[in-house]
From TrEMBL:
The active site is at residue 166. One of its GO terms (cellular component) is nucleus. Belongs to the class I-like SAM-binding methyltransferase superfamily. RNA methyltransferase RlmE family. TRM7 subfamily. The keyword Cell division does not apply. S-adenosyl-L-methionine binds at residues 53, 55, 85, 101, 126. This is Putative tRNA (cytidine(32)/guanosine(34)-2'-O)-methyltransferase. It comes from the Eukaryota. It comes from Urochloa decumbens. GO terms for molecular function: tRNA (guanosine(34)-2'-O)-methyltransferase activity. GO terms for biological process: cytoplasmic translation; tRNA nucleoside ribose methylation. It is found in: Cytoplasm; Nucleus. Keywords: Cytoplasm, Methyltransferase, S-adenosyl-L-methionine, Transferase, tRNA processing. Pfam families: FtsJ.
Length: 317
């Protein structure tokens, strides 16, 4: 698809470039905030799986920049934004970057250290594995990423805090809902208007972090395993809900936005520019070390006569 054609078919892709966002996903977080007011009162935030950084940009523009420009704000009062990803990303004003795997305990430790004993008001996670197209498999890997994010949440989120995580809707969605409901009094699955209807993605918006009484972080997985099992029913289900039977949970699902917003499944005419012809903008910030870079290097080298297996992946060279 040519750039102009993509601009026409994907209004949020075009708008992202016009407004200086690194990815169209920025609009998903903005639309979730419009509906749930998740940024209200937030001073400390963790952005998990943040690259290329459009959610971190949203956090910077909505929290850090206004505070910095306020004449009453002192240096120590500036919002703290910590962003983590496997991939490096170009710097963003007011955002501390950690490169690491969120499923690794050491990454969680680095994040916790940045908070220096204080707790976060908000944790967001837009993590996605490389999608295989096998829905059950993709949903499973995605749910593992969410559970890794929940591990970090249990260590860094303050009681009453919020957590927003990308989910893939599938057969285990109710289980995931019940697991999240163990820790948050309000859990809503939301679909922002900028997320295409054809995509199985949605976002779990979890409000009012309130772990079960006596909860210890090291017991997280043991507790989650009990959700939906007969043995766990007695002590957990009153909080998290039932997976089966007459009292089965119904997941609150909300389509964010109204009819006045752009529809991500529609094509929109391109704006006419001076001179009549439309000029597509370049992406705001191309990824600095994308996973496909090695493949491109190998392809380039093989077309110049070198054997592909003599090329070292760029991370090792
Ligand atoms: C959809 S992108 C995130 C887009 C980002 N929110 C933005 O607005 O620019 C998903 C990201 O998840 C990251 N990711 C996937 N698995 C991860 C893991 N185990 N640890 C850290 N990051 C991970 C990928 O590297 C990728 O950058």
């Amino acid at each position: 698809m040519g750039k102009a054609s993509k601009d026409k078919r994907d209004i949020y892709y075009r708008k992202a470039k016009e407004e200086g966002w690194r990815a169209r996903s920025a609009f998903k977080l903005l639309q979730i905030d419009q509906e749930f007011n998740i940024f209200h009162g937030v001073k400390r935030v963790v952005d998990l799986c943040a690259a290329p950084g459009s959610w971190s940009q949203v956090l910077s523009r909505n929290l850090y920049v206004p505070a910095k420009q306020s004449p009453d704000c002192k240096e120590g009062d500036l919002p703290l934004i910590v962003a983590i990803d496997l991939q490096p990303m170009a710097p963003i004003e007011g955002v501390i970057q950690v490169q690491g795997d969120i499923t690794n305990a050491r990454t969680a430790e680095v994040v916790i250290r940045h908070f220096d004993g204080c707790k976060a008001d908000l944790v967001v996670c837009d993590g996605a594995p490389d999608v295989t197209g096998l829905h059950d498999m993709d949903e499973f890997v995605q749910s593992q990423l969410i559970l890794a994010a929940l591990t970090i949440v249990t260590h860094v989120l303050k009681v009453g805090g919020k957590f927003v995580a990308k989910i893939f809707r599938g057969k285990d969605t109710s289980l995931l809902y019940c697991q999240l409901k163990l820790f948050f009094s309000q859990v809503t699955f939301a679909k922002p208007k900028s997320s295409r209807n054809s995509s199985i993605e949605a976002f779990a918006v979890c409000e009012n972090y309130s772990p079960p009484e006596g909860f210890k972080e090291e017991d997280l997985y043991h507790l989650l395993e009990k959700v939906g099992t007969p043995s766990g029913a007695d002590d957990l289900d009153c909080r998290s809900g039932w997976l089966e039977g007459p009292n089965k949970v119904y997941i609150p699902f909300l389509a964010c936005g109204d009819l006045s917003g752009y529809d991500s499944d529609r094509s929109y005419p391109l704006p006419s520019t001076e001179g009549g012809s439309y000029r597509s903008l370049d992406p705001v910030q191309p990824p600095i070390a994308p996973p496909y870079k090695t493949a491109l290097e190998m392809k380039k080298a093989s077309s110049h006569g070198a054997s592909a297996d003599t090329i070292r992946p760029s991370a090792e060279s």
